[in-house]
Design goal:
This protein is α+β, with helices and mostly antiparallel strands. It is 15% helix and 28% strand. A hairpin with a 6-residue loop joins strand 2 and strand 3.
């Protein structure tokens, strides 16, 4: 697969259950599977996260565009992430190719239809355990994917590295409070 047809690694508001998932991904994907991005750190942003290169692991999902939907999906995501082109000075995020690792125990084959209905919590085995992000025997290996990282040359990435608020464990979904108990 060439760099122009890579799957996407998403880690924030594009995850299932988050506000941009249905808006941008539903009906445009043929596969979504939990994965991790080694060599990156996740920081809080104004309602959405930023990933930057670093010594950590970011939890998210590998997303494969549905047949015939790749160009549309790429354009929508570039617009959402304010990616104007490689190295553009006004980029909020830079789209770069990186190795993501599918979560252990998750099948490597696409599921028929739109797989966006699944929740990511079931696919997070190994999260927070030693060796998380590294495939074990018989598990899928790294997958080259597009990921949107905070634009490294810009003020955003610099300010995150010097004074940003890290997302615990690199998992955007972990910042949500547990659901409130319902009383009769």
């Amino acid at each position: 697969m060439s760099d122009t047809q890579l799957p996407f690694f998403v880690y924030g508001t594009l995850l299932p259950g988050e506000p941009n998932h249905d808006r941008f991904l539903r009906g445009r994907t043929c596969q979504e599977r939990p994965a991790v991005l080694p060599g990156a750190l996740l920081y809080e942003g104004p309602g959405y996260p930023y990933a930057v290169e670093g010594h950590g692991t970011v939890h998210g999902a590998l997303v494969t565009a549905a047949p015939g939907a790749y160009a549309e999906l790429l354009g929508l995501l570039d617009d959402l992430e304010e990616f104007l082109g490689p190295g553009h000075p006004r980029n909020l995020y830079e789209r770069v190719a990186r190795e993501a690792v599918p979560a252990p125990g998750v099948p490597d084959e696409p599921r028929p239809g739109d797989s966006g209905a699944g929740e990511p919590d079931a696919g997070q085995p190994g999260a927070g355990q030693p060796g998380a992000g590294q495939p074990g025997p018989g598990e899928p290996g790294p997958v080259r994917a597009w990921v949107y990282l905070a634009a490294g040359a810009g003020a955003v990435a610099r300010s995150l590295r010097t004074g940003g608020t890290p997302v615990p464990g690199g998992d955007w979904l972990s910042r949500r409070p547990p659901p409130a108990r319902r009383t009769p």
